[in-house]
Specification:
binds magnesium ion; ATPase_AAA_core; EC 3.4.24.-; binds zinc ion; 4 domains; 22 helices; ATP-dependent peptidase activity; about 15% strand; binds adenosine-5'-diphosphate; Signal recognition particle alu RNA binding heterodimer, srp9/1
């Protein structure tokens, strides 16, 4: 619409310009006097005319005194007839120089036709443009059913191979097979082996699923149609299904090739779950995918890759053999893999000589590949801001904390009282953490605001953990509640600064009882069934599968475990008061305490 308006305005301007030009042209020609027949005959009689040029119906007359005139004659009459009719004497005519030009002088035609022609051309052009625009809209409407899957294999510039994916060895091995099949299908089919139709990549966000899929295409060098599952979902029922059909048709024409459906859970959710009508379209689309996956010949060479971070919500029909029967789980990277990932992302960044990627990998448990990539990027930005040429250890250290807890807010100035409370709060976390052997060692304490928190205590496990034991959780609880406890002990009342600690602690106790069966009193069972409901967006509903009496008992047990944790924390705080005061003093002085300094407090003096 905007385009149309622009075109119309441009045409109007052009039109006006031409009209203007034309009118000045006209004005010029009007300096020549137009005369009538009577005058013309009179002038001939008076022998005032020197010569005449006949141009069709127009006579251009030059007088002896130099003036110019024009005369329009009737089209049917020639000049000779005209003069005869007016009884002009032939002698007088002989004295005039008469010249006859081609009857259709271009200027004559131009003059007479342009005024009609220009508006006509104008109108035609406008109509043409309008038609084109309408047609464009039309053809877009007709393309509804076509998938917007992109064949990204031709994009050589960002070709990704397995070399760009660190760690996840098993996943790469599994996919290596897929690559080999795509390169040389005969090798497999000759042995009667059926090629997997679908491979599902599962893993938490940022673990490199999308990256891996692109690497497969890069390795195999085959067309790669990638589409996000959410692109199937449209306003109109049936469009998604049509797109799926189109996508598979395209793929079959281009076999061997890869279809990659990212974020499969957007359509692959269990059918029949959820309220309202919005899932109708999703179900149809999903059904179409199921049908298409069954439909094509397994040895054709079309392999469907899909990625999801919610395998638990996928429809079981998707997972049965013959569809996504291969499932590749991508775990969060362990220490070794983290180092590899860091190496890959450090390739294009100049690193200072003091940077030890292994150490960074040790200090970043739980980081995903995306977190690590982000970490090095932040470090590079920080380095540039400091006008350094190489990314140093300091920049990386700061970035780790930034990625973990949000940016520092140095401008967030605390009052003297608030600083003191924060110092005690964090000192207590650190102290209790240090005193309980099951808790993770303290890595850093700070009373500089970061993200939402006024201060923070960073604890890192010595190694990657896959399991957590009850005693660890109990210790964590005491550490979490230490801040709350110390505020009460020292200042007599609690501030809002401890609220998020309380929330975390309560949630932890709940899972401890109802998910992990770690409460002795409640026994080895789970309480409540989590069920995902889709209604006006996303919602997780918990279904109670226990009696009112049990609910009461659970509440009691929650309170009991929490108060036990407070007791533990209080005991440590009281016993090690002098140590805590030392930490507080240090914090108020220098705002942050690093691991080494912190441990020194406990080795130098005795309590
Ligand atoms: P997701 O699993 O959510 O699809 P992506 O594949 O989009 O995650 O990964 C996001 C980014 O994280 C990648 O572009 C890459 O830079 C980085 N990354 C994740 N995993 C790895 C890995 N194993 N090796 C190298 N880079 C990785
Ligand atoms: Mg992804
Ligand atoms: Zn706290």
């Amino acid at each position: 619409m905007k385009n149309l308006l622009k075109n119309v305005i441009i045409f109007l301007i052009v039109f006006l310009a031409i009209a203007g030009l034309l009118s000045t042209f006209r004005l010029n020609s009007e300096k020549v006097e137009k005369i009538n027949l009577q005058k013309f005959v009179e002038q001939i009689d008076k022998e005032e005319i020197k010569d005449i040029v006949v141009e069709g119906e127009k006579l251009n007359i030059a007088l002896t005194n130099g003036a110019l005139e024009t005369l329009q004659k009737e089209p049917s009459e020639t000049l000779g007839e005209l003069l005869k009719n007016y009884n002009v004497s032939p002698e007088k005519i002989k004295k005039i120089n008469i010249e006859i030009k081609g009857a259709t002088g271009w200027s004559y035609w131009l003059n007479s036709l342009l005024p009609f022609l220009i508006p006509l051309i104008f109108v035609v052009i406008i109509i043409y443009y309008m038609m084109r625009q309408v047609q464009g809209a039309n053809s877009k409407a007709m393309m509804f059913g076509q998938s917007s899957a992109r064949d990204s294999s031709k994009n050589q510039r960002e070709k990704i191979t397995f070399k760009d994916v660190a760690g996840i060895k098993e996943a790469k091995e599994e996919l290596q097979e897929v690559v080999e099949f795509l390169k040389n299908p005969k090798k497999f089919t000759i042995l009667g082996a059926k090629i997997p139709k679908g491979v599902l990549l599962m893993g938490s966000p940022g673990t490199g699923k999308t990256l891996l899929a692109r690497a497969v295409a890069g390795e195999a060098g085959v067309p790669f149609f990638s589409i996000s599952a959410s692109e199937f979902v449209e306003m109109f029922v049936g469009v998604g299904a049509a797109r799926v059909r189109d996508l598979f048709q395209k793929a079959q024409k281009n076999a061997p090739c890869i279809i990659f459906i990212d974020e499969l859970d957007a359509i692959g959710r269990q059918r029949g779950a959820g309220l309202g009508g919005s899932h109708d379209e999703r179900e149809q689309t999903l059904n179409q995918i199921l049908v298409e996956m069954d439909g094509f010949d397994p040895n054709l060479g079309v392999i469907v890759l899909a990625a999801t971070n919610r395998p638990d919500v996928l429809d079981p029909a998707l997972l049965r053999p013959g569809r996504f029967d291969r499932r590749v789980t991508i775990d969060r990277p362990d220490m070794k893999d983290r180092e590899e990932i860091l190496k890959i992302h450090a390739r294009n960044k100049p690193m200072g000589s003091n940077v030890d990627l292994k150490k960074i990998a040790q200090h970043t448990p739980g980081f995903s590949g995306a977190d690590l990539a982000n970490l090095l990027n932040e470090a590079a930005i920080l380095t540039a801001r400091r006008n350094k040429t190489k990314v140093g250890n300091d920049e990386i250290r700061e970035s780790v904390e930034k990625v973990m807890m949000g940016p520092e807010r140095k401008s967030h100035i605390l009052s003297e009282k608030e600083r003191k409370i924060t110092a005690y709060h964090e000192a207590a976390h650190a102290l209790v953490s240090h005193e309980l052997p099951e808790a993770d060692p303290v890595h850093k304490i700070s009373i500089i605001s970061r993200g939402q928190a006024a201060g923070y205590t960073l604890k890192l496990p010595l190694e990657d953990k896959h399991f957590h034991s009850r005693s660890e959780f109990i210790a964590d609880l005491a550490v979490l509640l230490a801040g709350h406890t110390v505020e009460k002990e020292i200042f007599g009342e609690v501030t809002t600064g401890a609220s998020s600690d309380l929330k975390h602690a309560t949630r932890l106790v709940k899972s401890l009882i109802s998910e992990y069966g770690m409460s002795e009193k409640m026994g080895a069972r789970t309480f409540g069934e989590r069920e995902e409901m889709i209604f006006l967006g996303k919602e997780i509903r918990e279904q109670r599968d226990y009696s009112e009496k049990t609910a009461e008992a659970i509440d009691e047990e929650i309170s009991h475990l929490l108060s036990e944790a407070v007791k533990t924390a209080r005991e440590i705080i009281r016993r090690k008061k002098s140590k805590m005061e030392t930490i507080v003093k240090m914090l108020l002085e220098k705002e942050t305490i690093e691991k080494e300094e912190f441990e020194e407090i406990f080795t130098t003096s005795k309590t």
